[in-house]
């Protein structure tokens, strides 16, 4: 499965659970860790975990099992490592605090389809 295909099912899962202010960055040729970095916000801790679960469900639907999740039930930030795609799901306050977008300023922002 290509990194673009992984990105596509990640964005679909986030959209299905109404992740907010979703951004994706194409880091190919810039980062050795991943091709794409994705960030989205959730209105609550419950929605944060629902988004992560939706991504895992989409991964399984696409026969993709190479992923790892960092964070706990009480976390305000979950990181999903899908090898070539890294996804950060934050509560709004945590996203504002960590401001990860500044780390990816050299990447090309991916235009995401609006449903």
Q: What portion of the residues fall into strands of 2 or more residues?
A: 25-35%
CATH class bucket: Alpha Beta
Report the major sheet. 6 strands, mixed
Topology, number of strands = 6
Rg measurement, Å: 13 Å
Low-pLDDT segments:
none
CATH fold type: Beta Polymerase, domain 2
**Based on the structure given, which CATH architecture is correct?**
2-Layer Sandwich
Output the structural class: alpha+beta
Number of spatially distinct domains: 1
What are the SSEs and their pairings?
Blueprint (H helix, E strand, L loop, with lengths): L2 H14 L3 E7 L9 E7 L2 H17 L6 E3 L6 E5 L3 E7 H7 L9 E3 L5
Parallel strand pairs: 2-5
Antiparallel strand pairs: 1-2, 1-6, 3-4, 4-5
Helix pairs in contact: 1-2
Give a written overview of the molecule.
The structure is a single chain. The chain is of the alpha+beta class and 115 residues long. The chain has one domain: Beta Polymerase, domain 2. Helices cover 33% and strands 28% of the residues. It contains three helices and six strands; from the N terminus they run H-E-E-H-E-E-E-H-E. The chain has a six-stranded mixed beta sheet. Strand 4 and strand 5 form a beta hairpin. Helix 1 packs across helix 2. The longest helix has 17 residues. It is globular. It starts with a helix and ends in a 5-residue tail after the last strand. The mean pLDDT is 94. Interacts with ribosomal protein uL14 (rplN). Its main location: cytoplasm. This is Ribosomal silencing factor RsfS. It comes from Lactobacillus acetotolerans. Pfam families: RsfS.
């Amino acid at each position: 499965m290509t990194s673009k295909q992984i990105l596509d099912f990640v964005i679909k899962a986030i959209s299905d659970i109404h992740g907010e202010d979703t951004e994706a960055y194409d880091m190919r040729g810039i980062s050795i860790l991943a091709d794409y970095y994705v960030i989205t916000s959730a209105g609550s801790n419950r929605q944060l975990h629902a988004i992560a679960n939706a991504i895992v469900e989409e991964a399984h639907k696409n026969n993709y099992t190479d992923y790892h999740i960092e964070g706990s039930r009480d976390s305000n930030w979950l990181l999903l490592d899908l090898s070539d795609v890294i996804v950060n799901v934050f509560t709004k306050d945590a996203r504002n605090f960590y401001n990860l977008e500044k780390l990816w300023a050299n990447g090309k922002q991916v235009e995401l389809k609006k449903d």
